[in-house]
Design goal:
Elements lengths: L19 E12 L2 E9 L10 E2 L2 E3 L6 H13 L6 E6 L3 E2 L4 E10 L11 E8 H6 L3 E8 L21 E11 L2 E4 H15 L2
Parallel strand pairs: 1-7
Antiparallel strand pairs: 1-2, 1-4, 2-3, 2-8, 5-7, 6-7, 9-10, 10-11
Length: 200
């Protein structure tokens, strides 16, 4: 057995092939003279998560890397050119309990003119960065537990159907700004980004 390949192996997330992979952008813009983060409200005609608050981004297509995907999606959703996106860097990767991996990037949008594609985006709004740096989001928790399917081979594991499955908890954060509530995956990514800035 040749173990030499392990010396050059770059670790990945285990079982990542079974996950849906997405990239999102945390866009920083100059809005009314203040550094602000741009958020989108998804179009009400979309089948998945209509009217939800999110960052620009989407699924990583075949042969794309996360950075290529986030630039493509941002240009499509905000109707801007690639040259107007200045990437600062990648923020911490988010792995959810729902077979999803999300790669966030932070960037500034140069000369952004409040444009967006109405087939995917209902509207955009801005939250000052200084507000977010001082804000402590509210937190609640969702229970996460294992539920075997009917065809699960219980006879192959100790205790069979009485196996003591592990349980966990999944945090849900809430940022409130004016009449907007940012929560869910978007809030988790935002919190990670803000904490990264606070530790610099």
């Amino acid at each position: 057995m040749n173990f030499e390949k392990l010396k050059h192996h770059k670790p990945r997330i285990c079982d990542y092939i079974d996950c849906n992979e997405f990239s999102v952008l945390i866009p920083i813009v100059d809005y009314k003279g203040r550094q602000s983060i741009l958020f989108q409200i998804r179009s009400k005609i979309l089948l998945k998560q209509p009217n939800e608050i999110c960052f620009p981004g989407g699924r990583i297509e075949h042969a794309e890397n996360p950075l290529q995907a986030v630039i493509r999606e941002t240009c499509e959703e905000l109707l801007i050119e690639e040259k107007s996106i200045e990437i600062f860097g990648e923020v911490d990767t988010l792995v959810t309990p729902f077979n999803t991996i999300i790669y966030p990037f932070a960037a500034t949008l140069k000369s952004y003119q409040n444009t967006f594609g109405k087939d995917e985006v209902e509207s955009v709004f801005y939250v000052p960065l200084e507000f977010l740096m001082d804000y402590k989001p509210k937190c609640s928790y969702l229970d996460v537990y294992m539920k075997p399917r009917e065809d699960f081979p219980f006879e192959k594991i100790p205790y069979g159907k009485d196996y003591p499955w592990a349980k966990g908890k999944y945090p849900a954060y809430f940022y409130e700004y004016e009449d907007k509530i940012i929560w869910g995956i978007t809030a988790r990514i935002l919190k990670s980004f803000i904490e990264l800035l606070q530790t610099q």
